[in-house]
Amino acid sequence: MPPTIKVAVAGDQCYLSTILRFFVEQLANKTPDWLSYIRFLVIPIGSHPLAKYMASFDSRFNTIFMDTAWRDLFCRTERPTLDNLDVAGRVGQYLAGANVSHQFPISEAMLTYKQKRKRSLYFDFYISPDEDSCQKFVPFIGVVKVGIVEHSLSTSVDSDDAMVVNPGILSSPTPPAPGSYGKEIGNTPPQSPSVSTALSGAGSPCSGGEVMGLQVDYWTWQGPEKKKEGEKRDVGLKNTLKSNFRSLQVSRLPCGGELTPPPSMAMTVVTKEKNKKVIFLSKKPKEKELDSKSQVIDGISRLICTAKHQHTMLRVSIDGVEWNDVKFFQLAAQWPTHVKHFPVGIFGYTKPM
């Protein structure tokens, strides 16, 4: 058996997402034993929810990459005059000592987006409105966001994670356009949706104060024993949320430093609800300001999010990569091929003191 190859990935969550897509795509046609030959070493630079979760159960990883000195060094926009931090030494410790593979489950996001095409005076009237829609399947291991994400409600990113990378210290290649990632469905090769990669950890796909009318259908995980014979996916109880959302976030990462990830996803939503009309003397009835209502729902195996209005396009952030012109999207807790886990190198399972 050949030795395990260590692949260092230095960058933020967006860059790791790029590596994940190529990993899933390249190993889809390989035998399952190939999965044990590779171990990825995560070197966090910038916003990185996955690294933050790893630090919750690996004390040595937490000491090397999550202390104030490391974070301050890569928060600066200019090169520091005195480098008192031994970056090479810390990275070398990780490369030499991370001999345990932690398996992160890979989930699936299916995006149905609007394909941009040239208008034709002669042929545009003969094209069905459904033919400008394309589908793309994107793997993810972290967080999917829609709308405005509150800092206090984010389960994986806080304001301290919103770093600005110093390109003079260590730079990562710009992720390529996502046209080559994953599977695509369509009669002709579709163009890629608009994609942007930002380093703002607590940022959001939508502008401040925006409220989005969404319908969210989700199915709760019922366990493998209740899966009927011949079914490809776990089918559970269907629930529907239809409201004005201020934010919607779905996380695949466990919370509270749990070592064994559940076979499901957790969703955090913030909705806007109107108060009852209040009648003031000598004034017309009017509504009070909108109140926010937050809710956390776990145990989700499958989810479909659609805008209330047909012509409303969504902006969806998947592991830090933003996708525009999305008509609706669907999430599944498990990637459908045999490549179901992403191996990441750690020192061991010792929680920080």
Overall morphology: globular
* Rg of Cα set: 22 Å
Compressed to H and E, one letter per element, the order equals EHEHHHHEEEEEEEEEEEEEEE
Please bin the fraction of helical residues. Answer: 10-25%
Structural class: mainly beta
- Secondary structure: number of strands: 17
Strand content: 25-35%
Quickly count the helices: 5
Give the overall average pLDDT: 76
Please describe the biggest sheet, giving its number of strands, its sense, and whether it closes into a barrel.
11 strands, antiparallel
* Count of discrete domains: 2
- The end-to-end span amounts to 38 Å
- List low-pLDDT spans: 120-128, 148-208
Helices, strands, pairings?
Blueprint: E1 5-11, H1 13-27, E2 38-44, H2 49-55, H3 59-65, H4 68-73, H5 87-97, E3 100-105, E4 107-114, E5 133-140, E6 143-147, E7 184-185, E8 195-197, E9 212-220, E10 238-251, E11 265-273, E12 277-278, E13 286-287, E14 291-307, E15 314-318, E16 321-332, E17 341-346
Parallel strand pairs: 1-2
Antiparallel strand pairs: 3-17, 4-5, 4-16, 5-7, 6-10, 6-15, 8-16, 9-10, 9-14, 10-11, 11-14, 12-13, 14-16, 15-16
